[in-house]
Amino acid sequence: MAMAYSNYSNLSRAQLTFEYLHTNSTTHEFLFGALAELVDNSRDANATRIDIYTEKRPELRGGYLLCFLDDGIGMDPNEATQVIQFGKSSKRSPDSTQIGQYGNGLKSGSMRIGKDFILFTKKGDALTCLFLSRTFHEEEGLDEVIVPLPSWDLKTKEPLTSDPEKYAIETELIFKYSPFKNEQQLMEQFNKIESSSGTLVIVYNLKLMDNREPELDVETDHQDILMAGTLVEGVKPEKRSFRAYAAVLYIDPRMRIFIQGHKVRTKRLSCCLYKPRVYKYSSTRFKTRAEQEVKKADHLSKIAEDKAREAESKRVALEARLGEDLSKDSRAILRKVQDSAMMMRRDADMKKMILEAKQRALKEPKELNFIFGVNIEQRELDGMFVYNCSRLIKMYEKTGPQLEGGMACGGVVGVVDVPYLVLEPTHNKQDFADAKEYRHLLKSMGEHLAQYWKDTNIAQKGIVKFWDEFGYLSASWSAPPSSESRYKRRRAMEIPLTIQCDKCLKWRTLPFQMDAVDKRYPDSWVCLMNPDSNQDRCDAAEQKQNLPCGVLKKDKQTAEDKRKELSEKIKQQQEKLQALQKTSTIKSAADVKKLPLQVSMKPTESTSQATRSSERSTTRPRSPPLPALLKNAQSTAPSRAASQRSTRTPATPPQPSKVEASRSRAAAKPPPLAARPVPKASAKTPPPSRSSRTPAKSSPAKPAAAGQRKRIIEDDSEEEEEEEEEEEEKDDDDSEEESEEEQPQTKKSKLAAAVSNRGKVVEKSTPPKRGKLDESPEKQPQQEPENDPKNAQRDKGLLVEVRVNKEWYTGKVIAVEANKQSVRWKVKFDYVPRTTPKDRWVFKGSDEVRLMRPPSPISQTPDTQQETEKGPAPMEPDTTQPGTSREVTDSLVNMLRTMLRYFFPPAFRIPKDDVNSMSAEELVAFPLKEYFQQYESGLQSLCNSYQSRADARAKAVEEKSNSAEVKLKEADEKLQKLRTNIVALLQKVQEDIDINTDDELDAYIEDLLTKGD
After folding, report:
1. Phi-psi region of 202 (alpha: psi -120 to 50; beta: other; left: phi over 0)
2. Backbone torsion region of residue 396, taken as left when φ is above 0, otherwise alpha when ψ lies between -120 and 50, otherwise beta
3. 618: buried, middle or exposed (CB in 10 Å: 19+, 13-18, 0-12)?
4. Please, which residues bridge with residue 147 across strands?
5. Residue 60 Ramachandran class (φ > 0 left, ψ -120 to 50 alpha, else beta)
6. Percent of the chain having pLDDT more than 70?
7. Backbone torsion region of residue 683, taken as left when φ is above 0, otherwise alpha when ψ lies between -120 and 50, otherwise beta
8. Residue 905 burial by CB count (10 A; 0-12/13-18/19+): exposed, middle or buried?
9. CA distances from 105 to 38, 39, 144, 199, 429 (A)
10. How much is the pLDDT for 63?
11. Strand, helix or coil at 204?
12. Cross-strand bridge partners of residue 169
């Protein structure tokens, strides 16, 4: 391993080119996001104050310097060298609460603002300057990135360097290409850092717009930095004003921000809202970031394990080689190898424990707090504010009812702080890396937002009336509220003023005072100015915001609701499929001839017919006009009734009539179980007719058919993702509900199965008058496959109806194509509009085709008379209408008896055994109302007894848990005290021992015991 590593010096290395400085800066589309990167660095450095200001320099591009001065911990020369390493960050750790994670913010942010920056930092006794200039690289024609990094002693101002020549070159470059031309001017910049430590970043040669003006406007408002060229109207204030953006940049601000010498009035959003409420949210969906951490920990654990094994093998080999050699040098070498092996093993065990902990954390649900409230100060500024590790990532995100554009949930602001382990931000901190998980978060916030709107009762009291109370008198939603004093007082009364002490940085809530409604508080406000006597000193604890807790109440879907939802989805898929089927592949000149020749701006006949048919959805779709002979022919009532049945017999001899009946049965087959919208069947429900059954067919069958027709189907990937998310979310959210419902459902499901089975028996008991292709009336011993090519060719000449654009058209089967999977008919239409092809291929048995009712012998055309000279086809009994046969009645009676016995309440006045002998008339007179009342009261008493037992058991468990926690706490204290005493004892025995953690102490003691053995 070591030998291989020594050879790496001969290999090529990746290099950072000068052009990357510009490329890296383009990640910041939002300019204020680049400025915020520099503010984030100050916050991560534990700064209590940052000043953002400009200095005029007309000779530079842009005309001024943009400066960021903080009082953070600063950097020494060694730490400053990490700044110029792209992608390296000492802040990166799984449990880190710091904003910076990528080691890229300073470089990308500053290079987005301007071409050059110079950094001055102070820490300890050292002053360090870092100079990164694109101008220098362009002037010198350099491709590699070179960064001068001189440093000086704080007291003597002498350079800290062992290479005077290097120091001379670095300072010469800084004097030539920076705004500071000598060492004295550099020292003046260090003097601006008045605290014991801190950092000053100066960006210059600013980027310009097309009109040669800087992108940041510092002239319009001398107390702010504005986005140049941005209109006031229609733009959120945070998108135009850096002061407004900095005010909400952090969810819990603990750093004072000054822009152009004036303090930013930072906000805790949850304290600025009317009727705030918090909702606890838990989900197992956020796994991407946690899975990355597990993979990383697994990798590190394997490396540590390999190193430990290698060290142990070296120790064993050395012990075997030394043998009985007990010389001083041998013992020293052995001791060193043993210590190394022990440390490696301890490190491997620690890495393994970390891996196991992260694997456990991966399965645990992630918990978040959603805070909602109404923005009564500016109602048009509503939406979700999503923070990551207390840093604002997304703002004014609309979700839930807010997407509909109505007044529902208007003016409501939502706030959530997402930890780094739940969602990872992008490098520019303006979005989240996993878009799918972020969409899931927004969807969940939308559900809780709707619940908050219900909980506030604003809609019930009247939305317009609610806003009128606070001075929103205009019909325009974006109009500001009235500035009348009574409305100002009303708004001020509802939201107490929260202000931050300039000294201790604690947040204080001021009591409402009538004369303080429009009062302007000084930037240097301190706790001593607080009129509240309990909070008028800096050593008083900060009051926590006490928010009421809301609960998301999900409406449990009944079986009927689920069935309706499934039916609606199937209907939508069918409509989408019909729209896609309009597009067909052109393979030959014959296909081109089928295309419509007339191009008109008027709506086509087919579309108008589709509209009319949709308006008459309750009636059967209209067929095209028939010849006058058929139109004027007389028809009997039974034939008219038979025309509405799903089963039709063609006008052919008896044997073909059976053939056609089999077609009808194949077309009317029930859908597969997986696609049935109605899972349970009731014996009392009459079987649906063909027209009512058609939209309920399974949707997967049609895409398959469409695929075999080689239709061009364009899938919308985004819709599919959203549908997947909805299904996954339902699985996550409904898992508890399903587990709760599972036990009581088992009995019902058994009963439902029995009901459905009986229904099937009734259907099968109907007289079998339909036959296959080769069956004769005398014998039906075996059935040939329906898709057999020989049998399929007999379908030629069948009269059918085909649905085209939601309209049914009559036609004749002129060609048949069969394979093992399916049979296709080519149907030539009797009449279709000019915009529709004269013939069409359809799948036999699909929803798009049905067999025609044979006309009566009187009304037959010459063509049909020739086929029916042998005799009229026998009419088949109507099996689709509800029957009143004895078998059906007996089946219903048996089912009713089973149900009554199953739910029979104890001590009912009618004995349970008597139900078995009751006749149908006695069952009709059965006292069902009394029966179910007694059943419900018995069930209620049983539930109450279970509840009381559960409460008693929970109370006992809670008491036991409390006592166990007390004992555990006492044991922990004793253990900690014992550890402290052991460490003190060991240090007395061996002074040079260095033990800092409990794990090191355990390992050391175990090692001593092992050696003692």
Report:
1. beta
2. left
3. exposed
4. none
5. beta
6. 71
7. alpha
8. middle
9. 7, 10, 20, 15, 9
10. 94
11. strand
12. none
Using CA atoms, how far apart are residues 238 and 308, in angstroms rounded to an integer? 54
What proportion of the chain, given as a percentage, has pLDDT over 90?
31
* Phi, psi (rounded to 5 degrees) for 451: -65, -40
Whole-angstrom Cα distance, residue 656 to residue 856?
17
Q: CB–CB of 403/439 below 8 Å?
A: no
Count how many Cα atoms sit within 13 Å of the Cα of residue 122 in the half-sphere of its side chain: 22
Distance in angstroms between the alpha carbons of the first and the last residue of the chain: 34
> What pairs with residue 550 in β-bridges?
279
The residue whose two tokens read 């041998």 is 330
| Whether 896 contacts 923, CB under 8 Å | yes
- The alpha carbons of the chain give a radius of gyration, in whole angstroms, of 41
Give me the half-sphere count of Cα atoms (radius 13 Å) on the Cβ side of residue 60. Answer: 25
CA–CA dist 944, 436 (Å, integer) = 44
Q: Which residues of 623-642 are buried (b: 16+ CB within 10 A; e: fewer)?
A: ebebeeeeeebeeeeeeeeb
Q: What is the pTM of this model?
A: 0.55
Residue appearing with tokens 């085909």: 802
Sheet holding 807-818, edge to edge: 839-843, 823-829, 807-818, 799-804, 849-851
Closest CA to 178 of 87, 262, 248, 114: 114
What's the rounded Cα separation, in Å, for the pair 386 and 431?
10
- 122 membership: H or E segment, kind and range: strand 114-123
Indicate the pairing of strand 366-374 with strand 274-283.
antiparallel
Q: Are 843 and 802 in contact (CB under 8 A)?
A: no
Please state the three-class secondary structure of 396-452 as a single string: EECCHHHHHCCCCCCCEEEEEEECCCCCCECCCCCCECCHHHHHHHHHHHHHHHHHH
Instruction: Report the C-alpha gap between 289 and 94 in whole angstroms.
Output: 10
Q: Which sign does the torsion angle of CA 318, 324, 329, 334 carry?
A: positive
Tokens describing residue 554? 């999900």
Backbone angles phi, psi at 891, to 5 degrees: -60, -45
Which residue, chain included where needed, has tokens 């509909």? 404
Do residues 817 and 840 touch, judged by C-beta distance below 8 A?
no
CA distances (Å), origin 174, targets 130, 140, 163, 893, 974: 9, 13, 17, 100, 61
SS3 17: strand
320-349 per-position pLDDT tens digit = 887 776 777 888 888 888 889 999 999 999
Chain position carrying tokens 């709506």 = 603
Contact criterion met (CB below 8 Å) for 547 and 273: no
Q: Which residues pair with 120 in a beta bridge?
A: 129, 200
**H or E element, residue 814:** strand 807-818
Selection from 431, 422, 424 nearest residue 101 by Cα: 424
Distances (CA, A) of 12 to 17, 123, 144: 15, 37, 15
pLDDT at residue 379, as a whole number: 93
* φ, ψ (nearest 5 deg) of residue 52: -115, 115
379-392 pLDDT, tens per residue?
999 999 999 989 99
- State whether the Cα torsion 736-740-745-746 is positive or negative: positive
Question: CB 271: neighbour CB atoms within 10 A?
Answer: 17
> What is residue 511's DSSP assignment?
P
Task: Name the H helices within 535-604.
Answer: 559-580, 589-593
Residue-level pLDDT at 87:
55
Nearest Cα neighbor of 696 from 816, 571, 608 is 571
Distance CA 132, CA 165 (A): 20
**Residue the block writes with tokens 């279709």:** 832
Length of the chain: 1013
Question: Any residues with CB less than 8 A from the CB of 477 and at least 6 apart, and which?
Answer: 379, 380, 407, 410
Residue 100 to residue 90: CA distance in whole angstroms: 9
The closest of 177, 194, 179 to 69, measured between CA atoms, is: 194
